Amino acid sequence: MKIGIPKEIKNNENRVGMTPAGVFALTKQNHKVYVQSTAGIGSGFFDEDYQEVGATILPTIEDIYNQSEMIVKVKEPIAEEYGLIKENQIVFTYFHFASSQPLTEAMIKSKAICIAYETVEDEEGTLPLLTPMSEVAGRMSVQQGAKYLEKPIKGRGILLGGVPGVKPGKVLILGAGVVGVQAAKMAAGLGAHVTIMDINMKRLRYVNDVLPNHVVTDFSSEYSIRKHIKDHDLIIGGVLLKGGKAPKLITRDMLKEMRPGTVVVDVAVDQGGCFETTKATTHEDPTYIIDDVVHYCVANMPGAVPYTSTIALTNVTLSYILKLANFGWEKACEKDKTLAKGLNIVKGEIVYDELVGIFD
Fold first, then answer.
1. What number of other Cβ atoms are within 10 A of residue 284's Cβ?
2. What are the pLDDT digits (tens) for 167-197?
3. Residue positions in the annotated binding site?
4. Does 10 have pLDDT greater than 90?
5. What is the pLDDT of residue 107?
6. Span of the secretion signal (predicted)?
7. pTM for the full predicted model
C-alpha cells in the first residue's frame, strides 16, 4: 500500500503521524511510504532520518494526498485539506467529529474512509490510541495550570506545592479516567492538595488505592462541584464521552463562585469542552479571562511536547497501520474488532452510532 504522512498544518502542531521507526516497519514489509518534506522536524526527526529507512520525501502536501492510498496524521484535517482528500482514501487520525459539524460534513462529502484514533476501542472498553495522548495531556494540564496560577499571568499567585509554613494550593479534577489520574499524579507530586471527582465508584476506588493520601475522592454532582470550586485554585476538566460531546459540568454562572485568579484547564476541549465558557485556543494564544477566571483551553496540548507525543503515538498506532496496509481497511476491520470501532464515516455514510443524529 502507498501511505502518506503529511506535515501537520494546524496552528502550532509540531507532532508528526509517524516516527522513522514506524516507517521502517512499513517499508520492511514492502509498503511505499511518502513523507512530506520537513513533516517531522518539529518532533526532532529530519528528512534524512526518513530516507534512511526507505521513505520517499515529497515537497508538498498536495503531492502526499495525490500519491497515497492511506493518509496517517495526528490532528483532524482542517479546511485547507478538505479538498485534498480523495474518494476511497483511508484517513487515519484523531477526528473528534462530535465537536465539528463542518469537518463532519466535509468528510461525508469526500467519500473517504475516516478511521478515528479516539474511537478505536478494545474489549475492555479502553481506548488504546487515545490513552497515550490523554496521559500526556493529563500531566501537562497541571504543568500549564501551575504556570498560569502565577500573578504576572493574572493567576492567584499560588505556588501549588506551597513552602514550609504556607499551605499548598488546591487542585480539583473532574473525571477519574486516564487524564484525571495522570493529572492527579502530577499535582500530588508537586505537593498540592488534590480532589478528584467522578460518578464511577469503581474509578474512585482505584484512585483511592493507587494515589497518595493527599489525593482525596468525591462523588461528582452539581452540588459537590459548586462546593469545591469556591476554594480550589486550579480546576481541570478531564471528562470523556466516547465519540460524543463532553457534558458541561462548569456553567457560566459558576465562575462567579470562584476566587479571582482561579485557573481552569479544559482537557476535554477536543470534544466540545466540559466548561460552558470553553472556546478552543492555541499554543500561540493559550488563555483568556472571563469573570476573572483564567481559561486554558488549548485543543492540541500534546503538540507542545512533540518528541514525547509522536513516539508515544506511534507506539500504539503502528500495529493498526500495519493491519490496514497489509489487508486493506475492510479485511483489517473484519479481523480486528477493536480497529473496526474506529470507523466513523465510510464512503459518505456515518457508521459510528454516537455520531448519528448529533447535528440534527
1. 8
2. 999 999 999 999 999 999 999 999 999 999 9
3. 15, 75, 134, 198, 203, 220, 239-240, 267-270, 298-301
4. no
5. 97
6. none
7. 0.89
Question: Which H/E stretch holds residue 198?
Answer: strand 193-198
Query: Which helix (H) or strand (E) element contains residue 5?
Result: strand 2-5
Q: Which residues pair with 93 in a beta bridge?
A: 116
Give residue-wise pLDDT tens across range 239-294: 977 766 788 999 999 999 999 999 999 999 988 899 999 999 999 999 999 999 99
Segment 26-31 long-range contacts (CB within 8 Å, at least 24 positions apart): 26/321, 26/322, 26/325, 27/53, 27/54, 27/55, 28/54, 29/322, 29/325, 29/326, 31/1, 31/2, 31/3, 31/325
DSSP letter at 178 equals H
Q: Which of 243, 301, 4 is nearest to 127 (CA)?
A: 243
Give binding residues for substrate as ranges: 15, 75
Average pLDDT value over all residues in the chain: 95
Q: Is 252 strand, coil or helix?
A: helix
Q: Give 301-353 as a DSSP string.
A: GGGGSHHHHHHHHHHHHHHHHHHHHHHHHHHHHHH-HHHHTTEEEETTEE--G
Residue 189 cell numbers, joined: 507530586
Consecutive H or E run containing 218:
strand 215-219
Cell numbers placing 4: 502518506
CATH 3.40.50.720: which residues of the chain? Answer: 2-120+306-355, 131-304
What fold does the segment set 2-120+306-355 form as a domain?
Rossmann fold (3.40.50)
Q: Which residues are catalytic?
A: 96, 270
Pull the grid cell for residue 126: 479502553
